[in-house]
Design a protein that fits this description.
31% strand, alpha+beta, globular, 5-stranded mixed beta sheet
Length: 133
Protein backbone atom coordinates (compact mmCIF):
# COMPACT_ATOMS: atom_id res chain seq x y z
CA UNK A 1 0.00 0.00 0.00
CA UNK A 2 1.18 3.54 -0.61
CA UNK A 3 2.04 5.95 2.18
CA UNK A 4 -1.01 7.90 3.38
CA UNK A 5 -0.58 11.52 4.42
CA UNK A 6 -3.03 13.96 6.06
CA UNK A 7 -2.27 17.50 7.23
CA UNK A 8 -4.46 19.87 9.16
CA UNK A 9 -4.11 23.22 10.91
CA UNK A 10 -6.10 23.73 14.08
CA UNK A 11 -6.89 25.95 16.99
CA UNK A 12 -8.17 24.27 20.15
CA UNK A 13 -9.17 25.42 23.62
CA UNK A 14 -10.16 28.98 22.73
CA UNK A 15 -13.15 30.69 24.37
CA UNK A 16 -14.97 31.94 21.27
CA UNK A 17 -17.57 29.91 19.44
CA UNK A 18 -15.80 28.25 16.47
CA UNK A 19 -18.24 29.94 14.08
CA UNK A 20 -16.86 33.29 15.24
CA UNK A 21 -13.41 32.12 14.11
CA UNK A 22 -14.76 31.08 10.71
CA UNK A 23 -16.13 34.60 10.22
CA UNK A 24 -13.00 36.22 11.60
CA UNK A 25 -10.68 34.20 9.34
CA UNK A 26 -13.12 34.23 6.41
CA UNK A 27 -12.39 30.51 6.02
CA UNK A 28 -14.70 27.52 6.00
CA UNK A 29 -13.33 24.94 8.44
CA UNK A 30 -13.37 21.21 7.78
CA UNK A 31 -13.99 20.35 11.44
CA UNK A 32 -15.60 22.30 14.26
CA UNK A 33 -16.22 21.06 17.81
CA UNK A 34 -17.99 23.08 20.44
CA UNK A 35 -17.14 22.66 24.11
CA UNK A 36 -19.69 20.63 26.08
CA UNK A 37 -21.42 19.20 23.00
CA UNK A 38 -21.76 15.39 22.99
CA UNK A 39 -18.83 13.55 21.41
CA UNK A 40 -21.23 10.95 20.00
CA UNK A 41 -24.70 11.99 18.83
CA UNK A 42 -26.56 9.19 20.61
CA UNK A 43 -24.54 9.28 23.84
CA UNK A 44 -24.74 12.62 25.61
CA UNK A 45 -22.78 11.62 28.71
CA UNK A 46 -19.37 12.19 27.07
CA UNK A 47 -18.88 15.88 26.28
CA UNK A 48 -16.22 17.76 24.32
CA UNK A 49 -13.69 19.35 26.65
CA UNK A 50 -12.82 22.34 24.45
CA UNK A 51 -13.62 24.21 21.24
CA UNK A 52 -11.83 23.16 18.05
CA UNK A 53 -11.53 24.87 14.67
CA UNK A 54 -9.69 22.89 11.99
CA UNK A 55 -8.84 23.20 8.30
CA UNK A 56 -7.43 20.30 6.24
CA UNK A 57 -5.24 20.13 3.17
CA UNK A 58 -8.00 18.02 1.52
CA UNK A 59 -5.68 16.46 -1.04
CA UNK A 60 -5.89 12.74 -1.58
CA UNK A 61 -3.86 10.82 0.98
CA UNK A 62 -1.42 9.49 -1.64
CA UNK A 63 -0.01 12.97 -2.41
CA UNK A 64 3.39 13.96 -1.05
CA UNK A 65 3.91 15.70 2.27
CA UNK A 66 5.18 18.80 0.48
CA UNK A 67 2.07 19.03 -1.74
CA UNK A 68 -0.18 18.76 1.33
CA UNK A 69 1.79 21.49 3.07
CA UNK A 70 1.67 23.82 0.06
CA UNK A 71 -2.08 23.23 -0.31
CA UNK A 72 -2.71 24.06 3.33
CA UNK A 73 -0.57 27.20 3.20
CA UNK A 74 -2.40 28.33 0.06
CA UNK A 75 -5.68 28.13 1.99
CA UNK A 76 -4.30 30.04 4.99
CA UNK A 77 -2.42 32.85 3.22
CA UNK A 78 -5.49 35.07 2.54
CA UNK A 79 -6.21 35.13 6.29
CA UNK A 80 -2.60 35.29 7.44
CA UNK A 81 -2.79 38.61 9.32
CA UNK A 82 -5.90 37.65 11.26
CA UNK A 83 -4.55 34.16 11.96
CA UNK A 84 -1.35 35.72 13.30
CA UNK A 85 -3.30 38.05 15.60
CA UNK A 86 -5.46 35.21 16.89
CA UNK A 87 -2.41 32.99 17.45
CA UNK A 88 -1.40 35.43 20.21
CA UNK A 89 -4.54 34.32 22.11
CA UNK A 90 -4.63 30.65 21.16
CA UNK A 91 -1.65 28.61 19.97
CA UNK A 92 -2.26 26.84 16.65
CA UNK A 93 -1.03 23.38 15.76
CA UNK A 94 -0.11 21.77 12.47
CA UNK A 95 -0.95 18.06 12.69
CA UNK A 96 0.83 15.77 10.24
CA UNK A 97 -0.49 12.20 10.11
CA UNK A 98 1.62 9.72 8.15
CA UNK A 99 0.63 6.08 7.72
CA UNK A 100 3.33 3.76 6.35
CA UNK A 101 3.17 0.16 5.20
CA UNK A 102 5.89 -2.43 4.68
CA UNK A 103 8.67 -0.21 6.05
CA UNK A 104 8.01 2.65 3.61
CA UNK A 105 10.24 5.68 3.99
CA UNK A 106 8.27 8.77 2.97
CA UNK A 107 10.01 12.03 2.20
CA UNK A 108 9.16 14.70 4.74
CA UNK A 109 10.51 18.02 3.61
CA UNK A 110 9.69 21.47 5.01
CA UNK A 111 11.44 24.39 3.35
CA UNK A 112 12.73 27.32 5.39
CA UNK A 113 10.02 29.50 3.80
CA UNK A 114 7.26 27.14 4.95
CA UNK A 115 8.83 26.75 8.40
CA UNK A 116 8.90 30.54 8.72
CA UNK A 117 5.24 30.77 7.69
CA UNK A 118 4.17 28.48 10.54
CA UNK A 119 6.74 29.86 12.96
CA UNK A 120 5.41 33.39 12.43
CA UNK A 121 1.99 32.04 13.45
CA UNK A 122 3.57 30.49 16.59
CA UNK A 123 2.47 27.08 15.37
CA UNK A 124 3.44 23.86 17.10
CA UNK A 125 4.06 21.03 14.63
CA UNK A 126 3.07 17.49 15.56
CA UNK A 127 3.90 14.33 13.63
CA UNK A 128 1.81 11.22 14.17
CA UNK A 129 3.59 8.42 12.34
CA UNK A 130 2.15 4.94 12.09
CA UNK A 131 3.98 1.96 10.59
CA UNK A 132 1.71 -0.94 9.73
CA UNK A 133 4.47 -3.02 8.11
Amino acid sequence: MPVKIKLYFRFAGFKENPNVLSNLFNLKPDVVHIKDEPVLPKIDTIKRKYNVWEIHSNLSEDKTFELHLKNLIKKLIPSYTVLKEFSLKSKPRLNCVIEMYNNDKPSIYISDKNLKFFSDLSTDIEFDMYNYG
